[in-house]
Amino acid sequence: MLRTKTCGELSLKNIGESVTLCGWIQRMRDMGGMTFLDLRDRYGITQIVFNMETNAALCGQVRGYGRECVIGVSGTVAERSNKNLKIATGEIEILAEKVHLYNRSKTPPFTIETDTDGGDELRMKYRYLDLRRPNVRANLELRHRLGMLIRNYMSGAGFLEIETPFLIKSTPEGARDFVVPSRMNMGEFYALPQSPQTFKQLLMVSGYDKYFQIVRCFRDEDLRADRQPEFTQLDCEMSFVEQDDVLATFEGLVQHLFMAEKGIDIGSLPHITYREAMDKYGSDKPDIRFGMEFVHIKKGLAADASENILPSGKFTVFDNAEWVGGFVARGCAEYTRKQIDELTDFVKRPQIGASGLVWVRRANDGSIKSSIDKFYTPEELKLLADKADMQNGDIMLIMAGIGEKTREQLGTLRLHVADLLGLRSANEYKPLWVVDFPLLEWNDEDKRFYAKHHPFTSPKPEHIPLLDTDPASVNANAYDLVINGVEIGGGSIRIHDRALQKKMFSILGFTDGEAQKQFGFLMDAFEYGAPPHGGIAFGFDRLSSLFGGAESIRDFIAFPKNNSGRDVMIDSPSTISEDQLKELCLTVRN
Amino acid sequence: MLRTKTCGELSLKNIGESVTLCGWIQRMRDMGGMTFLDLRDRYGITQIVFNMETNAALCGQVRGYGRECVIGVSGTVAERSNKNLKIATGEIEILAEKVHLYNRSKTPPFTIETDTDGGDELRMKYRYLDLRRPNVRANLELRHRLGMLIRNYMSGAGFLEIETPFLIKSTPEGARDFVVPSRMNMGEFYALPQSPQTFKQLLMVSGYDKYFQIVRCFRDEDLRADRQPEFTQLDCEMSFVEQDDVLATFEGLVQHLFMAEKGIDIGSLPHITYREAMDKYGSDKPDIRFGMEFVHIKKGLAADASENILPSGKFTVFDNAEWVGGFVARGCAEYTRKQIDELTDFVKRPQIGASGLVWVRRANDGSIKSSIDKFYTPEELKLLADKADMQNGDIMLIMAGIGEKTREQLGTLRLHVADLLGLRSANEYKPLWVVDFPLLEWNDEDKRFYAKHHPFTSPKPEHIPLLDTDPASVNANAYDLVINGVEIGGGSIRIHDRALQKKMFSILGFTDGEAQKQFGFLMDAFEYGAPPHGGIAFGFDRLSSLFGGAESIRDFIAFPKNNSGRDVMIDSPSTISEDQLKELCLTVRN
Question: Helices B134-156 and B540-547 meet at what angle, rounded to 10?
């Protein structure tokens, strides 16, 4: 090795030792008689001292080097007079005796520090420099640790990591596939997997009853912020299980990760149905770090009017609304007109698309005011405030409209207000299971059902008859792991019966021929002894960013792509040669 | 869980317990009053007993099920009267009380046993059934264990597993890339990585001084037997190292794997130079489980004639040959004419292409006979036999021709004879390092140099001046790990200097523009403080098959492709829709 020690390991107990360190020059301070150099590697920073009096030549040599040059330094470990107790090596320094320059560096285009002056595009173009920043390094180290923790936990629980192929077959259901032209099979294409779904199910048919894999997946989607065309998944499947077995197994994994990485005992995870999540929080991935559960003021057009909290015939907006509901923001009665206006603007943004916001406040003196004062009597509003358990000083924010849509809008407002109130701490974790998802989702544009999870998800056995009469009401043994309002994982019990799978494809609009062409291998496999099975997949990039306390996944991926799917560092995608196209029998259309 | 125990865990200490097992029917024997059923899962086989007298209905029910049906059985563990000590569960059986049929099975197209009657194509088409065979399962379990051992060893040694991108940039140097058309960037393509080479080097520039990854790689090559278009690599890189540091690190890994998986202490690995390997064994991946090193009878046209063992001017074939050499096969003096003819035919096959074979035998009585008796005196042949250390009963097989080519041919014969003699035991492991590979390889067809390893390999520093005068003679700090005649891994110390990398590209025939377009990001990175670094990559499929004692990698891959790059199970590659082509702006040429 060109070094005997790293820049992160020397301390007072090494005083007097001769050592050689290698690393990058973080900074240099020329103090006239002395030059101090901070040498950085993956493990830390060590101060190197050059003395003009004792070794002027060496001192002069080093003063010629700039930031980010790579050097090796030999010298003796000495105690620092001016200790820096903020860093592990802050009590010692190296009295330099010899320096070897391994490589020079041009001046980096941004500062290599946690707080950098580099903008996004610049940092991505020079990602190899961005990756030197200690916070980005910490992210990748965290990701490595999580990967090791997961693999050892899964392996210890009897799961086998089995690699599935990347060059598979295009199945246009779901998101768009990336395809790969085959040179040896002219005019034919492979596809890159959106997930190993069918392969892991085949492994269950093969009897590998506990499978996992940390695996790259690919989706050619129009990229929204923080979506990557390639992403990593922890993919799992088990045989001879029911929903609760899967949940218990992966609850164990989640508990283990929080304990091992953060020392947090998150306890057992609450289960909440999809219906309950939508009704209470207006979201199928509710953030339950804080309350602010919905108060249902009007439950529905068809609901018994006596269940409504406010009388009808008074306020046409509420009368016409299918659903009216709100939540209470504690201690916010003092919100100014401006603050209320901002919240109203927030819900009116096109991304949310609500028409307005109603408020009711209970002031600190107990008096009740509301934006709908003129429509309801004080008694009616007091009843509302009481039913909503409003305390003095609270405000209730209310929205009205089409049921599910309005609940989702109110759910978004709930998160926004919680953000404003600082109720969403990055250091608090409240995982939960959302269960009993609907099997299907009606798409009004295409006038057809889509699978809510995917076409392999099994309806709840007791709902199977409803497939023929009322498919929209069929629930699935499908579940999501949600942490702090983010969907971290999702899975289901699968269909393992050929006839039911065929029926499912037919409900999704496949002809028998299409179903057989695309998924025949799986349905055929079901005829040779397929066990009951189910599984789950977790977004590993997202899990890493959650553990890292960050919102974006990008800095937990070593070499991410930008929102146009480009890697600006290597400049990819790019054109390929006419020879390559010819070999692949392809022409690019203009 | 639908089961309380697996089919591999019950023993005498469970007698009397009520259990539920799930699995596949391996076989059923109807003995009139009793029916015996072997139930199989991933963990083993357990015998289930149905008694016609005590439960005729249940017995009748089960008799209707066939091989590979999936059932759950509840019953009581009992001691077997007729014990089978060959299997772990052979001392007990389950007295069945209840059976649940989870799924039926059609009759499988081949027997689900280690020795199967299924041919290759059939097994691949029904790979999900093939994977049920215990030997294939053992292979995938071994692969899982090796993956865990490697990851824990590497992580324990301070290496970080960092994922690199799959959608990268096409760089036509080396093998052919698989490309991926980009929909969002019309007319442009990603490429799938042939290895993460440039990314791991960038990680070194970023200061992640110990990197590893178990990662899929892709090569669009015309497939020879036992090559896969996608394969898995253990990819590693280190900074601030010299060749010996890399070798020592991975020698540790190899020792650890053999000890942990096989309980074998393989000791320290010999180092042998490329030159020595070619001269002694005619191969850069020598099998050193046995001797049979080459005897150099004539060292070269230019060599000092006094070094030749046989005098010149006697046998024109040897006189005209650049090199003459042989090896001694111990105890084979009794080879018949037919056996010799078969060996001659072997070397004359087009794959080897030699023109003939000369032999010299020293019979058990010490007398010497040879196919070139008439050209040399008995004294001359005796001298040859003595110099070759031939004992009574040995034969020497000799070939003559162009130096390196003839040595390679003789090397192939050496392996063949060792196979015939049973000297290549699957249970003996002799790993070694082959070092000091040439940097470049001249291609007579293209009239240009190719990189022997890859364009990023550094010449030995002391050879750098030769790049201008005699590139063919430049050696590299490049090394291969060879086990039992198979190249398991290879790597090198890399170039970390922009000017040298540029020169290397120029020697390889790149214009400056091409080099900058394809690898500019790497050369640019070298200007921002690139440390000295080097690494290695291991073929993980190959490593698994080596540990599994098998020749083919295919049964160590869950879902392999055939020699045309097809997955015959899912029928991929396949055509894609005109809509998909249109979105990608592509036309398939006819």
Answer: 120
Which residue, chain included where needed, has tokens 């009007």? A298
Token pair, residue B568, equals 């015959």
**Nearest alpha-carbon partner for B199 in B519, B584, B545:** B519
d(CA B372, CA B380): 11
Report d(CA B404, CA B427) in Å as an integer: 31
Distances in Å between the Cα of A533 and the Cα atoms of A73, A196, A239, A245, B35 are: 59, 15, 4, 11, 28
Average pLDDT for chain A: 95
Q: Which residue of B has its CA nearest to A105?
A: B528
**Pick from B529, B561, B588: which is nearest to A70 by CB?**
B529
- What's B445's DSSP letter? T
The interface predicted TM-score of the complex, written ipTM, equals: 0.95
Question: What one-character-per-residue DSSP string does A508-553 give?
Answer: TT--HHHHHHHHHHHHHHTTBTPPPEEEEEEEHHHHHHHHTT-S-S
Question: Which domains are assigned to chain A?
Answer: 12-103 (2.40.50.140), 137-271+432-556 (3.30.930.10), 290-424 (3.30.1360.30)
Q: Cis (ω within 30 of 0) for the bond into B573?
A: yes
Dihedral sign for Cα atoms in the order A62, A68, A74, A77: positive
For residue A173, what pLDDT band results from cuts at 50, 70 and 90? Answer: low
CA-based radius of gyration for chain B:
30
Chain A 198-257, CB below 8 Å of chain B: which residues?
198-199, 202-203, 205-209, 216, 218, 220, 222-223, 229-230, 232, 239-242, 245
The answer to whether the Cβ–Cβ distance between B128 and A184 falls below 8 Å is no
Alpha helix positions (H), B269-363: 274-281, 316-320, 337-348
- Predicted structure pTM score: 0.96
State how far residue A358 is from chain B, nearest Cα, in angstroms: 43
Query: What residues contact B341, with CB distance under 8 A and at least 6 apart?
Result: none
Scanning B183-273, the segments in alpha helix (DSSP H) are 197-205, 243-257
